[in-house]
Write a structure and sequence with these properties.
13 helices, 8 strands, 43% helix, 14% strand
């Protein structure tokens, strides 16, 4: 049985899954396949590199720096999240990712991105880390409006969650028989239509296909939830998400709130152990 884990990200709310992954490291949980969306990709690389606590430092400590995310960044750089600072300065120098351990991991990995021109999902694998950079993660995390498009090999990319917010189909296409899905909010919550349409139409006018997909993003997400629940009924999906609603924004810098989410993730990892043991992962 090929078992995969999916981390759907969620901006700063992704610290919940960071707590889950640190719990997985504590209990030596291994997955054959890992696929991440947006902040979920950052969580996964630290997990595969065995760097427990690294993601916690990014969410709690490094994010307090205005260079990480701020209105000042938006004014000076045209993007709220300074992806170059996060995934070049911090990741390669201040709080280094262990690229060797990541590449040596025997788990397959996929990174979800959205092609800015076609608005279709694309997927990078671990080969992108051979050059010791995280541009693929930058692309997966490039929220439209909050970030500029990230260029890789002549193509522009935005956040993977635009086109494929919960990449269940990709995991199954890649041979997974069952999946563990990490979500930063309760699965009962559904997405509503985009309320920032006027802003998207102005800022993203060069990407008409992307605008159309953003307009339909809530439908894409909600359909994916329905598919996930079907897999759960079949015994092929384990969903790990908060049972309570902790109202943290994707740009939150509230260290107390984020720490609470992290600890909740750790607790929920422990609660999932019986199911993981039944799947032979423990």
């Amino acid at each position: 049985m090929k078992t995969g884990v999916i981390d759907i990200g969620g901006g700063m709310r992704g610290i919940y899954a960071a707590g889950v992954f640190d719990g997985f490291i504590d209990f030596k949980i291994h997955f054959d396949y890992c696929i991440g969306v947006s902040a979920g990709t950052a969580n996964i690389v630290s997990f595969l590199a065995g760097q427990r606590g690294r993601n916690y430092r990014f969410y709690i400590r490094h994010a307090q720096d205005r260079r990480y995310m701020s209105l000042d960044n938006m004014i000076r750089r045209g993007e709220y999240f300074n992806l170059s600072y996060i995934y070049e300065t911090l990741t390669n120098h201040v709080d280094p990712l262990n690229y060797d351990a990541l590449i040596a991991s025997d788990s397959e990995m996929k990174i979800v991105v959205t092609n800015a021109k076609t608005a279709q999902p694309e997927y990078f694998d671990k080969k992108v880390f051979s050059e010791r950079n995280c541009r693929a993660i930058m692309a997966s995390c490039a929220l439209p409006i909050a970030c500029r498009a990230v260029e890789i090999d002549g193509n522009e990319y935005f956040d993977g969650g635009v086109a494929d917010p919960i990449p269940i189909k990709k995991a199954l296409e890649d041979g997974c028989d069952r999946v563990v899905v990490l979500m930063p909010r309760n699965i009962a919550l559904r997405k509503k239509p985009e309320i920032l349409k006027p802003v998207y139409y102005r800022v993203l006018k060069d990407y008409p296909e992307l605008i159309e997909t953003i307009n339909n993003r809530h439908e894409i997400y909600n359909r994916s939830i329905d598919e996930l629940l079907e897999l759960k009924e079949q015994g092929r999906a384990l969903i790990i998400c908060p049972a309570i609603n902790i109202n943290a924004r994707i740009t939150s810098k509230n260290a107390r709130l984020l720490d609470r989410l992290y600890k909740l993730g750790r607790q929920d990892a422990v609660k999932a152990l019986p199911a993981l043991r039944e799947w032979g992962l423990l």
